[in-house]
Amino acid sequence: MTSPQELKDLFTHGLDLLSEGRIEEWIDGFTEDGILEFPYPAWGLPTKMQGREALLTQMTMFREQLKVEFSEPEFYTANEDGLVIAGFTGECTLIATGGQYHQTYLSVVRFEQGRIALFRDFWNPSLVMEAAGGELAWKQILPTLAPSY
């Protein structure tokens, strides 16, 4: 069983890996069939990815197209059952346009034996679309950002 403090440390380390573009290492922190879910995705992006290959496809695009510096998370819960709920912010730059924005996140994460089984990330997708130049510009640029979608 992973202690609440260990879960907080794992979560915070994961944000550091994402900020540094170390996507493969972040994905290694998931179970084999781990799920990354965006209940409110930007137009044209998937709401759910399951398994390391799907995570790699999505998050490689993240690394190539978005620069993010995350704040220290505020933990609302981290318990011995493996549940972590945390809020944090990101200073974001969309590389394709240079558009910058400030994002607020709320993540609900379920750990199993120290690995992420579910990472449900709530964020405002309109902000990234605005950074692209608006919804129409987002729809035009999306194929160049994520050719597999």
Structure description:
With 149 residues, the protein is of the alpha+beta class. Helices cover 36% and strands 37% of the residues. The chain contains five helices and seven strands; from the N terminus they run ααββαβββββαα. The protein has helices spanning 4-19, 23-28, 52-65, 125-131, 135-145, and strands at 30-37, 48-50, 66-70, 74-78, 83-94, 99-112, 115-122. Strands 1, 2, 3, 4, 5, 6 and 7 form a seven-stranded mixed sheet that branches. The mean pLDDT is 90.
Q: Helicity range of the residues?
A: 25-40%
Head-to-tail CA distance between termini? 38 Å
Q: Provide the gyration radius in Å.
A: 15 Å
Roughly what is the average pLDDT, rounded to an integer? 90
H/E series: HHEEHEEEEEHH
How much of the sequence lies in strands comes to 35-45%
Q: Rough shape?
A: globular
Number of strands: 7
Largest sheet: 7 strands, mixed
Tally the helices: what do you get?
5
Q: Which blocks of ≥5 consecutive residues have pLDDT under 50?
A: none
Structural category = alpha+beta
